[in-house]
Amino acid sequence: MDDALKETLIATAHRAADAARPLTLASFRQADLATEDKGQGAFDPVTQADRDAETAIRAVLATARPDDAILGEELADSGGSSGLIWVIDPIDGTRGYISGTPTWGTLISVAEAEGPIFGLIDQPYIGERFAGGFGIARLDGPHGARALRCRTTATLAEATILTTFPEVGTSVEGAAFHALAQRCRLTRYGMDCYSYALLALGQVDLVVEAGLNAYDIQAPICVIEAAGGIVTDWRGGPAHQGGRVLAAANAQIHAAALGVLRDCADG
Amino acid sequence: MDDALKETLIATAHRAADAARPLTLASFRQADLATEDKGQGAFDPVTQADRDAETAIRAVLATARPDDAILGEELADSGGSSGLIWVIDPIDGTRGYISGTPTWGTLISVAEAEGPIFGLIDQPYIGERFAGGFGIARLDGPHGARALRCRTTATLAEATILTTFPEVGTSVEGAAFHALAQRCRLTRYGMDCYSYALLALGQVDLVVEAGLNAYDIQAPICVIEAAGGIVTDWRGGPAHQGGRVLAAANAQIHAAALGVLRDCADG
C-alpha cells in the first residue's frame, strides 16, 4: 500500500471520528437514557445516538472512500470494490454510556482481507483519541500527545488484568477468566473498550473478553499491535472476527495467559 | 455558620484541590509507578504522589484555616480548636490510579461534629470537579458547568447499581450486595469514588460499598446530599465514619435497597 493511500485512510478515520463526536456527546449524560426493553417503535435515545453517529461516520466514508466496504454495528453492511473494509462501532460500551462512565468509545478501523490495518479508539467526553497502525501509535488527549507503548510485564504474578463484566460470557468462559485472574496481581472491571486503550498505554497487562463482534475488536487490535502488544483468540489464533479475545502487553505475558485460558476453555 | 465562613471554607477547599492536582497528575500513567505494600496481606498500593498531594493540601489548610483539625489518609491527624475538621483523601482509588483509569479522585471535605458540611470530588485527569454543600451542587468539567441532581428512579427493577469490586468486603457483605444487585436492572463495577459523582450527576441510582474509612465517604456524602440523594450505612444510620455504605438517588430507592441489605447483613 502506498503512502498516499495510507495518509488518506488515516485522515479519513480521523474525520469520521470527528464527525461522530458531537452526536455521541449530545446524548451522553442526558436525562432518561437508561431505559431498556422498549416496545417496538418506542424512542430509544441511546440507539438513536448510536445510529446518528454511525450515519455521520458513513457519510464521511462515502465521500472520501466511496469504493470501500463498511461493516457497522447499527446499520446494514455496505459492499465495496476496493478490497478495503471499514469496521465501525459508533458507541462501543453502551452500558457504560447509559451509566455516565467515560469508558465507552467510538471505534473506527479499516481492514484488508487479512485483518485490520489502522484504527482509532476515540473517547469523546474525556477528549482522548488512541490511534494505531501505519507506524502510528499515539494518544492525543487533554494533557497533550503521547506515544503508546505496551508494558514489559513478564509474569502473571505481576500483571493487572481487565475485563468488563465479572460474568465474562458463558459459565465456562467465566471460569476460564477467573482461573487466569486468580493468578494475576490485580483484577479490575467495568472499563468497556477503554480497557484496550489502557493496555496500549502501558497501564495494564491483559484484557480478556468473550462474545465480541468484529466491530468491537478490530480498532483495538490496531491500537494494541501498534503499541507492541498482541491480540489473539483464546487459542492463539486471529481475533479480528471477535469471539473470545485475549489482548496482552507482550509475547511473554500473552503466552502465560494463553496457557491458562486454553486449558480452561477446553474443560 | 455565617456566610463569610462558608465562603472561606468553599474557597479553601477549591484551593486545596487545585494544589493537589499537579502532584497527582505528575505520577498518573507514568512508568514504574512506585507502590508499596501497607501490610495486612492485602495488595494496597500507595504512591509518593499520594503523600505529596496530601502535604500540599495540608499546606493550604494550615495557611487558610490554622485552627481547624485535619484527618487525612496518608499522614498523622492534626488537632484543632475551631470545631471544624477537614477530612481528605488525596488519591481515593489507588488501584484505579495505578491501572491508568480516570476513576480515582481527590476527596476534600470539611465537617462539624455532626458530620460533613461541604465537600469536593476532584478528577484531575478528566478535569472534573464535583462540589456539594452550602447550597452548591455543581459539576465543573471539560464540557462546562452543570447542576448536580440525583435521579427519581423508584424501583430496584429500574435501577443501575455500582460498586468497585465484585467481592465487596467480607463474604457476608458480598452476599448482601449480590442479593441487591440481582434485583437491579444493571450492575457495573470498577468506578472507585467516581461512582458517587455519577450518582450525584443523575447517571446511576445506587452505590454500595463496604470497609470504607471516613476519608473515603465524607466528601461523597456532601456531594450526593447536595444533589438530593441519601447516604447511610446498611442499617439506615449515619455513614460518615465509613464502614458499610449505601448511597441512593432518593428516599424511595434508598428504602428499597435498605430492605435487602439490612436483611442480608443480619444473616
Question: What can you see in these coordinates?
Answer:
- Chain A is of the alpha+beta class and 267 residues long.
- Chain A has two domains: 3-147, Fructose-1,6-Bisphosphatase, subunit A, domain 1 (Fructose-1,6-Bisphosphatase, Chain A, domain 1); 156-266, D-Maltodextrin-Binding Protein, domain 2.
- Chain A is built from seven helices and twelve strands.
- Chain A has helices spanning 3-27, 45-64, 94-98, 171-181, 194-200, 214-226, 251-266, and strands spanning 69-72, 85-92, 105-112, 115-123, 128-133, 136-141, 144-147, 160-163, 186-189, 206-212, 230-232, 243-248.
- Chain A has a seven-stranded mixed sheet, sandwiched between helices.
- The first copy, chain A, starts with a helix and ends with a helix.
- The mean pLDDT of chain A is 92.
- The interface between A and B is medium-sized, with 34 and 34 residues.
**Spatial strand order of the main sheet of chain A:** 1-2-3-4-5-6-7
Strand content of chain A: 25-35%
Quaternary structure classification: homodimer
Mean pLDDT of chain A: 92
CATH topology type of the largest domain in chain A: Fructose-1,6-Bisphosphatase, Chain A, domain 1
**CA(first)-CA(last) distance of chain A:** 43 Å
SSE sequence of chain A, one letter per element: HHEEHEEEEEEHEHEHEEH
- CATH class bucket of the largest domain in chain A: Alpha Beta
Biggest interface: A-B, 34 and 34 residues
Q: Residue share in helices of chain A?
A: 25-40%
Number of helices of chain A: 7
How many strands, which pairing sense, and closed or not: the largest β-sheet of chain A? Answer: 7 strands, mixed
Unreliable segments of 5+ consecutive residues of chain A: none
Our Rg estimate of chain A from Cα atoms comes to 18 Å
Task: Domain count of chain A, please report it.
Answer: 2
Structural class of chain A comes to alpha+beta
- What is the annotated CATH architecture of the largest domain in chain A? 2-Layer Sandwich
* Extended strand count of chain A: 12
